[in-house]
User: Fold VWA domain-containing protein from Paenibacillus rhizoplanae.
Amino acid sequence: MQRKINLLLLLFSLLGAGVAFVLGELLLDRRPYDLPQMVLVGIYFAIVALCVGIGALVAETISPRLNGQSWKLRYLGTSWKMFPLMVVLLLGVGTLTEFVYELNFGGSKPVKNVVMVIDDSGSMSQSDPSDRRYAAAKNLVQQLKKDNKVAVVTFSNEASVIQPLLPLSKAANREKVMEVISSLKTTEGGTNISGALAEAMKVIHEDGADRGAMVILLSDGVSQFNTSTELTDYVARGIKVNTIGLALDDPSGASLLQNIASGTGGQYYDVADANRLGDVFQQIYDRLGDRTLLTERSDQTADSPYYAVVRVLALMLLGTALGLGLGIVFDNRHLARSFSIGGAVSGLIAGLILESGLNGDTLWDPMTRLLALLVLAAILTLFTYIVPVGEGRLSRRGRAAGAANAPADSVHSPRRNRGSKGF
Assistant:
């Protein structure tokens, strides 16, 4: 048993992590076949196992400093045959940990129902003469996922439900909602925010499904509204109201929308130019509440210490599984122990990096994931200097093969019975 380092294995594992990062970002960006998030995350970590594992196996084939020359001569073929097991292991552990991470505790629910509440009062002819708010709303509908439902409420003096909550699982439904929004136009009248939010809550109640909901309220005016009483249902159900103030000249209008957003845990957006509405709706969409091990928590669990701990523990488990998988591939119980312990430590650090670094930024988040992967690969492969390793087969097949290939003169002769006496 010796403390060893294979610098070539470290280098190739880091290269493998870099390749896994590129492939993983493409996977997260394109989300092929509308895969469920837990399956997507499982595939992501299977890719990590594939790339890091190939790098480690090639490095040890070139320079077998950790597993020994005898492994290269006798068991290299077996290692390649065992390689798919490592990939499947990470696929399973990744899917399972993501499943646990997505479980909702404490009454929290991911946002699935979106209710757009749009001001169409007479003042909008000056605030938004080109009807950019309708174009932004249609763009949001286009981006929503198939498991979302969407509703549209408009208001001036009175509020009207133009489209009740409709599932977007069918393309025809998505087109229907967009046609409804296209038919909207500016009317006459004032700004009845109270009635609008009351109608939005009715829509949410009538759906009856136990799904998380969110409201997007856009207005350019001021309204009589009692935030201490009229937001009671929203606060009780944990429904955020994100508010958009468009070209507000009256400070009391901006103050009201800010209070509505802060009172429900939502976000307020101050927009001076209607041409920026598309960007604002995009920001709201980006914060709808996807919760994965690899992305920022943007729902009501954003500051939850529970989910922070679960993410870190999940990465520890994934790191341990990656190390164990490498030990299985090399068919070495000492390497399995060393890599598993190193994987747990590197997973802990990688989890802390993700938890503290992910913030929803399109440039920063990928760099955070890259750093986490590099740390995971580096610490895992360097841990053989801390936990000593030597030759020691995991499988009986390996031991049998070793015995079959052993030189004849290495077989010990039967031990003489020292208790016998003779002349």
In short: The beta strands are 111-119, 149-155, 159-167, 212-219, 240-246, 268-271.
